[in-house]
Design a protein that fits this description.
This is DUF1015 domain-containing protein. It comes from Mongoliitalea lutea. Pfam families: DUF1015. It is a single chain. It is built from 15 helices and 21 strands. With 433 residues, it is an alpha+beta fold. The strands form 5 sheets. Strands 1, 4, 5, 6, 8, 9, 10, 11 and 12 form a 9-stranded mixed sheet that branches. The chain has a 6-stranded antiparallel sheet with strand order 15-17-16-19-14-18, sandwiched between helices. Strand 16 and strand 17 form a beta hairpin.
Length: 433
């Protein structure tokens, strides 16, 4: 089902290898303001092309890329490859190191309704538009989205394990994660990667905005090209692929910060009690442990106090919805429908356009934002099991935006891919024979 190709990758020039830790950057949707300020001070940091500044940021990114090419800051590998990408990490209290294994290649930017690339969450409209404009102006992909495939036999792991013994990159990133990149140029081995994934659908784990931007870019370019064949550079998208059945996949929760003008806390709690059991807590630091094993349970934090809320079974039974049970019963769907729509009055279908809702993975930062008055309230959520992500994707429905946080995040700046025809073209037929 999925048509993949190796990549003629662009990378920072070998002379900058020892500086690479100062040149890579977090993805555009997780980089903090403090990180941005520091990274912008680095002249050649990848943030200048992933999250550009200025009144016309996309044009600035395009100009920056052209200058980097002319100055030899980045250079293109002469032949395509499969880029093996391993991330080594530990959680607090974890003794054994985990390793998320995967590889980077190109995949056709399939429409959602083709059923090849499956999504599991909604997007935020403004972020999609920003990614489209950046791709149009730069014709460059500065970070790979993250896709999952299901392979119970783990057929590709031995090939990746062998390749990673000769890394081209080995560094520690801003998360404290060891990032290792290697490349495979051997044609028979590359063909094996393409064969294994050729009959599979791909579940989009991370990068919904970038991938949707790639779809819209492909459609616009195809419509403008009277000789469109379907194999042009603009048809392809850079993606990082990992096995969904790997034991080292980690999904962390993403909490909601909400700005409520003229907040009347008592009235809000009274409305919430129509749908939820509401219990005041002595210590907001207890929230996550109290909701962890409980279905439809969330933390609700105001400035100065906190509550555990749990949906009433009677409210759920009275809910008339077109959602199938697989979707309807999900914690985050319950939260967005019963609390954000019914209690806060923000219609479910409009929430992805709302600037009143922000998303924060770090629990302590989330609590601090409310304590400092930067948000009216916080809704504390739990992680989504991998099993549920797979079920949602296969159902054809989606969860609310920012439902999952696959950890660790991939980096921007390790590898770039061009959608300019002259930088993309190669006799790719060699990989299909």
């Amino acid at each position: 089902m999925a048509e993949l190709l190796p990549i003629k990758g662009w990378r920072y020039h070998e002379r900058l290898r020892d500086q690479l830790e100062q040149l890579v950057s977090p993805l555009f949707d997780v980089v903090s303001d403090k990180q941005r300020k520091a990274l912008y001070q680095q002249t050649y940091n990848s943030i200048h092309v992933t999250v550009p500044l200025g009144e016309q940021p996309a044009r600035l990114a395009a100009a920056t890329l052209e200058r980097w090419k002319e100055e030899g800051v980045i250079s293109q590998d002469p032949i395509p490859g499969i880029y093996v990408y391993y991330q080594y990490f530990k959680f607090p209290g974890q003794e054994e190191e985990s390793c998320r294994k995967g590889f980077i290649a190109q995949i056709k930017a399939y429409d959602w309704d083709e059923g090849v690339v499956l999504r599991h969450e909604n997007t935020i409209a403004k972020s999609v538009n920003d990614r489209i404009e950046l791709l149009e102006q730069s014709q460059f992909q500065s970070s790979a989205t993250h896709g999952l495939y299901e392979d119970p036999l783990h057929l590709l792991e031995p090939l990746m394990d062998e390749a990673i013994q000769n890394p081209i990159v080995d560094l520690e990133d801003y998360q404290g994660v060891r990032e290792v990149l290697a490349v495979i140029h051997d044609v028979p081995t590359i063909k094996r990667f393409l064969e294994v994934l050729g009959d599979k659908s791909i579940i989009l784990a991370d990068g919904h905005h970038r991938y949707e931007g790639a779809i819209q870019y492909r459609k616009a370019q195809a419509q403008a090209n009277p000789e469109h064949q379907g194999n042009e550079a603009y048809n392809y998208h850079m993606m990082y692929f990992t096995n969904a059945l790997s034991k080292d996949l980690r999904i962390l929760p993403t909490h909601r910060l909400v700005d409520v003008p003229n907040l009347d806390k008592e009235a809000l709690l009274e409305r919430a009690s129509e749908f939820f059991y509401v219990r005041e807590l002595d210590d907001e630091e207890e929230i996550y442990e109290l909701i962890l094993q409980k279905k439809w349970a969330f933390g609700l934090v105001f400035q100065g106090d906190a509550y555990k809320i749990k949906l009433k079974e009677s409210a759920y039974q009275a809910w008339e919805s077109d959602f199938p049970e697989t979707i309807k019963g999900l914690d985050l769907v319950v939260l967005h429908y019963f609390f954000i729509e019914k209690v806060l009055g923000m219609p479910y279908a409009e929430q992805r356009f709302s600037e009143q809702i922000q998303y924060e993975r770090n629990l302590h930062k989330c609590l601090a934002s409310v304590a400092q008055g930067q948000a009216s309230l916080a809704l504390i959520t739990k992680d989504v099991p991998m099993k549920q992500v797979l079920e949602v994707c296969k159902s054809g429905y989606t969860m609310p935006q920012k439902s999952t946080y696959f950890y660790p995040k991939t980096l921007s700046g390790l590898l770039f891919a061009s959608v300019r025809q002259e930088e993309f073209q190669f006799p790719y037929e060699a990989y299909n024979t």
